[in-house]
Write a structure and sequence with these properties.
The complex is a heterodimer of chains A (114) and B (114). Chain A is mainly β. Helix content of chain A is 0%, strand content 54%. The chains are: A mainly beta (114), B mainly beta (114).
Amino acid sequence: AQSVTQLGSHVSVSEGALVLLRCNYSSSVPPYLFWYVQYPNQGLQLLLKYTSAATLVKGINGFEAEFKKSETSFHLTKPSAHMSDAAEYFCAVSDGANAGKSTFGDGTTLTVKP
Amino acid sequence: DTGVSQDPRHKITKRGQNVTFRCDPISEHNRLYWYRQTLGQGPEFLTYFQNEAQLEKSRLLSDRFSAERPKGSFSTLEIQRTEQGDSAMYLCASSPVAQPYEQYFGPGTRLTVT
């Protein structure tokens, strides 16, 4: 069984500040991990993925995430927030290369203040 | 590549009515997934197909729900005798043969049951 916990349902940062969105996972097999972004009334867009290669993965829009097996974490960061980053972010886990589904966290809403 | 499309985008129905949603995946993606997302939560897996075969169904998929992918291309999700608890966003995603874990999401169909 797999699960994802996103710590903090709401995060607020000032424009230009560091963004840190936390994700912890549980998986009985080596996981594949994902971060998605969702804008209002839209589907999910893949930001980045970890697929058992490099532990630090870079994604679109300046986001990156680091896989830490010892901490079972996959936190999302961005050095400098932009107003357009305001959205909901979801962390997800699947059980490997041939997985048929992903298990999602409940999401974190990011607000960016001017 | 036109992306995953879903129709309709919005559906309002009365309790007890049947509804059907359609999903057109990215061409040549052999896997197709259905998820349900309620307010304040992440997407929950419902079912997925590999080509025309339905390989997994969640226990969330009650007897009132049925999904098909008759020719391995588009898929339909039908809900019979809708209930107010069925109100949600229904998301479809597809993934390619080489990277089945990399899911591309459509914009979703928002169902409101009155």
